[in-house]
């Protein structure tokens, strides 16, 4: 097993750039959890990756499960065959809803000692759909600070041997996904209702993000300090990058009198929002004032028609009570 | 020393490899016999308020939000897969339907039905035995409630395919508020009188408010909560660690400029209406109850405050960014 891992996972620059949606990761995790809970066997799960291919850039958007032709041999790991008919029909079905998604590869959930011979057999079965499918591996038990996802590109070596070269990937950060993930990460256990104000929630989100930024800055600072004190070797590349980062700040010098366009636009945006807040306050006050006027009117009317048809509006004894209150009322204005 | 660490790590991995199923993951189990017996006994027929809660999985929520967002300003719809657990409807997954989004359609077209049946059939073949427990659609920009057509559709669904739940997502308000705007509903059977107006107040555009008002007593909301597995939890934490960059860099004032402008003009229309309404009835002291419901001015004020609060929050993040990145000075 050890030899297969060293030959199978050589890192290097791949020929494609990969970006993936967090939905892909959640799908794979859910598939794994479901199988684990429902069948109480720790088998690997396999499925297909769907994405958009634009030249040399692949964007993974969605996944679905493979149907394995022979489930009983899956546990012995001798060979795993995929039901290709199911796969092609499922792909057609997907095309109806998402016409821009293509078959881009397959995924597996395995630990560090993964078996590349099974993966090679997958490759040969799937090569008809896509000449260079990608492999995505989720590590369910790995201990690390990073996402336990590894992406591999398949290289056919000398016509028969198949190599898997690990490539790096980026995460796509679309606004709706970010909010969805944030929501689930924080609100899962409690019920949706909370008594905190909207403002404090917003500030908490910003605070968390800034805290992470601050931690990373601290790391950089420690690094530079260590170099200065001679504890670490100089790495000129890194130092150059840090220097360029420092030189980029401030990003826009708003005090510079030659460059006032940003300042003007920013001020306009601020005054727009301030105007909106002011209008909202005015509207709220008008509404409160209107309520007050209504109540005053009721009381005032009651006072004038004290012996009259208070009952016709259904107030009855309540009206008489109000009349007594009304007698005191004008006195408070004096 | 290194040997100790290695042994420790191996021990840790071994204990984790045992992979006990934690309580959080139990919810993913599906026992078909239990489900079948629930379907046979049908306790919801006696009590129209039987289902009280709706639990949505992390994956389903993410898919709902992304599908709704991908529709832009068009409504999208799809089906929900899951199971029943006592008074809870549990939604484990969702899938999109290939239908055009228009408000005037009552039922999905023929191809949508075919798609739905093929999907559920094949889902069972890949160890995915959940049933269809509901449908969802999006209301981009106008809040989570059921329109007249939606109420009719849901009443039909509850008649023929119960247990069924209707979920509504608003992707525009999700982004503008920074929180997922979602609601789960079940309709009452015809003729049933609701005890109270249960729908939580939310600003609704003027052109839809009639539709909302007419039907709001015919359905009730379910309490929504979310769940995730232990593996999901770890992955989500890692994902969050990567997302802090985009949290700082997004600017909702810019991305939602259209929506905010729309809200402002809507409030302006509501205020005009309120003005004419007040002009008519200012000399008649209305009974207490009616005044609360008809007070358009108070409602317009609430809507206005909500929009202003959201805009101020986005401005706050802009100011934070400006302070962090623009007002940095270096001592040479």
From TrEMBL, chain A:
Q: Which residues form the JAB1/MPN/MOV34 metalloenzyme domain?
A: 17-157
**GO annotations under biological process?**
protein deneddylation
Cellular component, GO, one term: cytoplasm
InterPro entries xrefs: EIF3F/CSN6-like_C, JAMM/MPN+_dom, MPN_CSN6
Q: What is its main location?
A: cytoplasm
What are the subcellular locations of this protein? Cytoplasm; Nucleus
Q: Which UniProt keywords apply?
A: Cytoplasm, Nucleus, Signalosome
**Molecular function per GO:** metallopeptidase activity
Q: Where is the signal peptide?
A: none
Q: Which residues form a coiled coil?
A: none
The record's comment on protein family reads: Belongs to the peptidase M67A family. CSN6 subfamily.
Record function comment:
Component of the COP9 signalosome complex (CSN), a complex involved in various cellular and developmental processes.
Designated name of the protein: COP9 signalosome complex subunit 6
UniProtKB/TrEMBL annotation, chain B:
| A GO BP entry | proteolysis
CDD domains to which the protein is assigned, alphabetical: MPN_RPN11_CSN5
Which PROSITE patterns does its entry note? MPN
GO-annotated molecular function: metal ion binding; metallopeptidase activity
Which InterPro entries does the entry link to? CSN5_C, JAMM/MPN+_dom, JAMM_MPN+_peptidase_M67A, MPN
Q: Which GO terms describe its cellular component?
A: COP9 signalosome
Q: Keywords in alphabetical order, please.
A: Hydrolase, Metal-binding, Metalloprotease, Protease, Signalosome, Zinc
Q: Where is the MPN domain?
A: 54-191
Q: Does the keyword RNA-binding apply?
A: no
Does the UniProt entry include the keyword Nucleotidyltransferase?
Answer: no
- Similarity field: Belongs to the peptidase M67A family. CSN5 subfamily.
Protein name, please? MPN domain-containing protein
What organism does the record attribute this protein to? Adineta ricciae (Rotifer)
Per the UniProt record, the lineage of the source organism begins with: Eukaryota, Metazoa, Spiralia, Gnathifera, Rotifera
């Amino acid at each position: 097993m050890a030899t297969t891992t060293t030959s199978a996972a050589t890192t290097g620059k791949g020929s494609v750039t990969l970006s993936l949606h967090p939905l892909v990761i959640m799908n794979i995790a859910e598939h794994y959890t479901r199988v684990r809970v429902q069948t109480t066997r720790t088998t690997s799960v396999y499925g297909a990756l769907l994405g958009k291919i634009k030249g040399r850039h692949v964007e993974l958007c969605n996944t679905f499960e493979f149907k394995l032709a022979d489930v009983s041999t899956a546990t012995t790991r001798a060979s795993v065959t995929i039901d290709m008919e199911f796969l092609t029909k499922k792909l057609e079905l997907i095309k109806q809803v998402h016409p821009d998604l293509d078959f881009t590869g397959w995924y597996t959930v395995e630990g560090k000692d993964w078996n590349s011979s099974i993966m090679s057999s997958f490759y040969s079965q799937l090569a008809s759909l896509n000449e260079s499918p990608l492999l995505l591996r989720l590590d369910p038990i790995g201990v690390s600070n990073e996402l336990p996802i590894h992406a591999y590109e398949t290289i056919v070596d000398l016509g028969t041997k198949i190599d898997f070269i690990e490539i790096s990937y980026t995460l796509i950060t679309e606004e709706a996904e970010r909010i969805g993930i944030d929501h689930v990460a924080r609100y899962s256990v409690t019920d949706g209702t909370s008594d905190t104000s909207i403002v404090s929630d917003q500030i908490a989100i910003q605070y968390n993000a800034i805290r992470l930024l601050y931690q990373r800055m601290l790391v950089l600072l420690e690094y530079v300090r260590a170099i200065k004190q001679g504890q670490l070797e100089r790495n000129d590349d890194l130092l150059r990058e840090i220097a360029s980062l420092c030189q980029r700040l401030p990003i826009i010098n708003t005090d510079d009198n030659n460059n006032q366009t940003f300042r003007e636009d920013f001020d306009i945006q601020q005054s727009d929002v301030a105007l909106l807040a002011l209008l909202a306050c005015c509207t709220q006050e008008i509404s409160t004032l209107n309520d007050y006027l209504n109540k005053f009117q009721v009381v005032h009317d009651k006072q004038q028609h004290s012996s009259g048809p208070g009952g016709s509006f259904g107030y009855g004894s309540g009206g008489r009570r109000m009349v007594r209150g009304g007698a005191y009322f004008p006195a408070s204005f004096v | 020393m290194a040997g100790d660490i290695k042994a420790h790590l191996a021990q840790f991995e071994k204990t984790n490899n045992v992979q006990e199923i934690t309580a959080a993951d139990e919810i993913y189990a599906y026992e078909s016999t239990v489900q079948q017996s629930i379907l046979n006994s049908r306790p919801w027929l006696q009590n129209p308020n039987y289902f009280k809660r709706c639990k949505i999985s992390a994956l389903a929520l993410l898919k709902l939000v992304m599908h709704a967002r991908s529709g832009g300003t068009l409504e999208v719809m799809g089906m929900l897969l899951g199971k029943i657990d006592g008074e809870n409807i549990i939604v484990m997954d969702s899938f999109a339907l290939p239908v055009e989004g228009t408000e005037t359609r009552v039922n999905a077209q023929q191809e949508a039905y075919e798609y739905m049946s093929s999907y559920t059939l094949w889902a069972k073949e890949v160890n995915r035995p959940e049933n269809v427990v509901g449908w969802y659609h999006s209301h981009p920009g106008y809040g989570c409630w059921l329109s007249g057509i939606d109420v009719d559709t849901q009443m039909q669904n509850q008649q023929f395919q119960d247990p069924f739940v209707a979920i509504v997502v608003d992707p525009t308000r999700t982004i503008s508020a920074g929180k997922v705007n979602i609601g789960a509903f079940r309709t009452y059977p015809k003729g049933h009188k609701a005890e109270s107006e249960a729908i939580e107040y939310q600003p609704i555009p003027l052109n839809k408010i009639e539709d909302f008002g007419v039907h709001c007593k015919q359905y009730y909301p379910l309490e929504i909560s979310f769940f995730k597995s232990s593996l999901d939890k770890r992955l989500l934490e890692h994902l969050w660690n990567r997302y802090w960059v985009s949290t700082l860099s997004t600017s909702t004032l810019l991305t939602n400029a259209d929506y905010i402008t729309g809200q402002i003009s809507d409030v302006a229309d509501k205020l005009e209406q309120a003005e004419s309404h007040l002009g008519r009835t200012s000399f008649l002291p209305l009974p207490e109850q009616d005044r609360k419901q008809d007070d358009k001015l108070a409602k317009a004020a609430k809507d206005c405050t909500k929009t202003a609060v959201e805009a101020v929050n986005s401005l706050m993040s802009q100011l934070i960014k400006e302070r962090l990145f623009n007002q940095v000075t270096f001592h040479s």
